[in-house]
């Protein structure tokens, strides 16, 4: 239909609890407790300085803590894909934008269609939930200098729009749902 817009979006929450994230949270809490302990045992001007450092540490931890809760939002508009990250549902940061024209292939990460790209040893940009049972897809892009690999978790609607725009580039077969059960 003329003037019909192809628009869909998908939001994926990042699962917490990675080793790096736990380490960072532990260091933040330990640092604040250490500053509190030092501020309590110091005397005179040093005690005031210790409380000032404690206040600075608490403000730093307060500003950094929301960064641990991430949600990725994938937006598809007329062949253009945007990937944004939202921290604690409060702030949004635009991460990537690319056109379907630059995509070489979109397929599940365990698909044999991606075997021809394994020799590239590209470090992927990971925009997934990192859940063990997640359905992760890989995108290989033609870059200006080299190829890029992007990992993401689109839903069925998102994949349908991508397949409609570039049927030969997107490996996706919708699952048939049982009716009348």
What does this structure look like?
The chain is α+β, with helices and mostly antiparallel strands and 181 residues long. It has two domains: 7-15 and 69-165; 19-67. The chain is 29% helix and 28% strand. The protein has three helices and eight strands, in the order βααβββββββα. The protein has helices spanning 19-41, 45-64, 156-165, and strands at residues 7-13, 70-77, 80-87, 91-99, 103-108, 125-127, 137-141, 148-152. Strands 1-2-3-4 form a four-stranded antiparallel β-sheet, covered by helices on one side. Strand 7 and strand 8 (148-152) form a beta hairpin. Helix 1 runs antiparallel to helix 2. The longest helix is centred in the first third of the chain and has 23 residues, at 19-41. The radius of gyration is 23 Å and the shape is elongated. The two termini are 35 Å apart. The mean pLDDT is 85.
User: Average pLDDT across residues?
Assistant: 85
Main sheet strand line-up: 1-2-3-4
Beta-strand residue percentage: 25-35%
Q: Give the topology string: H per helix, E per strand.
A: EHHEEEEEEEH
- Globally, the shape reads elongated
- List segments where confidence is low: pLDDT < 50 over at least 5 consecutive residues: none
Please give the oligomerization state of what you see: single chain
Q: What structural class do helix, strand and pairing data support?
A: alpha+beta
**CA distance, first residue to last residue:** 35 Å
Number of strands: 8
Largest sheet: 4 strands, antiparallel
Describe how the helices and strands are arranged.
Elements: E1 7-13, H1 19-41, H2 45-64, E2 70-77, E3 80-87, E4 91-99, E5 103-108, E6 125-127, E7 137-141, E8 148-152, H3 156-165
Parallel strand pairs: 6-8
Antiparallel strand pairs: 1-2, 2-3, 3-4, 5-7, 7-8
């Amino acid at each position: 239909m003329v003037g019909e817009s192809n628009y869909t979006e998908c939001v994926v929450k990042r699962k917490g609890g990675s080793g790096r994230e736990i380490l960072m949270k532990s260091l933040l809490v330990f640092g604040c407790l250490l500053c509190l302990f030092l501020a309590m045992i110091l005397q005179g001007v040093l005690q005031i300085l210790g409380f000032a450092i404690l206040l600075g540490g608490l403000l730093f931890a307060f500003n950094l803590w929301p960064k641990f809760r991430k949600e990725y939002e994938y937006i598809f508009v007329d062949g253009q894909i945007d990937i944004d990250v939202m921290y604690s549902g409060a702030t949004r940061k635009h991460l990537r934008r690319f056109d379907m024209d630059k995509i070489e292939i979109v397929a599940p990460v365990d698909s044999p269609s991606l075997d021809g790209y394994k020799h590239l040893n590209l470090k992927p940009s990971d925009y997934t939930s990192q859940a063990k049972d997640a359905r992760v897809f890989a995108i290989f892009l033609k870059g200006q200098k080299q190829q890029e690999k992007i990992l993401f978790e689109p839903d069925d609607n998102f994949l349908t729009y991508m397949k409609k725009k570039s049927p030969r580039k997107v490996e996706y077969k919708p699952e048939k749902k049982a009716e009348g059960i």
